[in-house]
Amino acid sequence: MQANEKPLSRTQSASIINTKIHNIRVESLRHARNQKHLPLADLTTRHTHNSPTLPANLLADATYTQEVISRRPRDAREALFVIKRVDRPQHEPTATITSTSTWRAEALSLTIPAIEEPQNVPPLTSLCLQILRMAPFDADFSENILPFIPPHLRRTLLRWSAVHAPLTTHQLRALCSSDGDVAGELIVVGPDAGLREDQFKHPDADSCLAEWESEDWVAPPPMHTFILVSSHLAVSVMCTLPATLTHLALVNVSNPVSLHRLPTICPLVESLDLSYNTWLVAEAEARERLGKVQWSRWHQLRILGIRGCHVPTAIVVEVNKGRWDDVQVVK
Predict the structure, then answer these.
(1) Please, are residues 159 and 192 in contact by the beta-carbon 8 Å criterion?
(2) What pLDDT is attached to residue 6?
(3) Domain ranges within the chain, ordered by starting residue
């Protein structure tokens, strides 16, 4: 530094540094546009020190994007921060209420009360299971990861997914055991999931004999809970429902179900949920379908859910006929 030169002030030094950084950014942008064979924008290296260095709408309702905007940027600063405004929809999407997690949680709450309990701080296991839910349920996942998840954590994953991210038919099949359930439970939420024709059919005798003769074989718990939401139930599948079921929920089923067959197929039912079925809304149809059921054959019935349906008074009387304790009818 020569003797007659004055040292630069802090403001002048900062100004020179900002100008150099700005010029480097402009040159980098030019180089990037040349590599992509894009037309050169009207970029200038002039820098106004008292002007903002970021776009004015940076803190507005906008998000960054890698897309090239249709109009040419006004200056180098706008070209460096390519912003595309995201317009919020004025109205909610036209999806039905049955496709929301809030409705699914309320629909499942009668059969599984713990599923609707709010958690301010979710446990670490739930957070880890949510990460597993995003993994592809391919052959590698089924062979190397699922066998090391204990049954009770699989059940937690099944319940969480039924509310927040329903599993598809393929994912359900990978998550369930050879008996077609998860720790005695099966929750099928449509429309992306459905029941197979052999969903509840037992394996052949040879495979069962091989398992029984194995020293490490442990008998799985019997299936006690089956929930079907927003899906189809064929008569052939309904006739194969396990007789060990104690909790049965047929919620918002798309097709009418032969309810009068259920006491014979599942005689141990304690909780029955028939809520939100459109084929039980009309008074005449509800009286006909519910009137055919022999309610006295369900000796253990404690809870009957008919939310969002027509409930004839005569049916309530018939349900409680000859019982010491009245059945809780949830309307």
Answers:
(1) no
(2) 63
(3) 10-85, 97-330
Q: Say how far apart CA 68 and CA 205 lie, in whole Å.
A: 64
CB 301 within 8 A of CB 319: yes
* Residues whose CB falls within 8 Å of the CB of residue 31, separated by 6 or more in sequence, listed in order: none
CA-based Rg of the chain, rounded to a whole angstrom? Answer: 32
Residue 141 pLDDT: 79
pLDDT band at 16 (very low <50, low <70, confident <90, very high): confident
Give the tokens for residue 290: 């519910």
270, 295 contact by CB (below 8 A) = no
Token match 């809030």: residue? 102
C-alpha pair distances (Å), 87 with each of 49, 192, 240, 305? 32, 30, 51, 42
Cα separation of 157 and 165, whole Å? 10
What is the SS3 assignment for 273? Answer: strand
Helical H runs in the chain? 10-35, 76-80, 101-108, 124-133, 139-144, 151-164, 169-175, 205-213, 235-238, 262-265, 283-291, 313-319
The residue that leads in pLDDT, 95 or 215, is 215
DSSP H stretches of helix in 176-244: 205-213, 235-238
Give the pLDDT confidence of 25-61 residue by residue, as tens digits. Answer: 888 878 777 777 766 555 554 445 555 555 555 444 4
SS3 content of the chain, % helix, strand, coil (to 5): 40, 10, 50
- Chain mean position to CA 269: 28
Cα 299 versus chain centre, distance: 35
Report phi then psi at 216, rounded to 5.
-90, 0
Residue at 109: amino acid letter = S
Q: What angle do CA 284, 327, 273 make, to 5 degrees?
A: 60
User: Are the C-beta atoms of residues 331 and 307 closer than 8 Å to each other?
Assistant: yes
Q: Is the dihedral of CA 30, 34, 35, 36 positive or negative?
A: positive
Phi/psi-derived region of residue 243, left when phi > 0, alpha when psi is between -120 and 50, beta in every other case: alpha
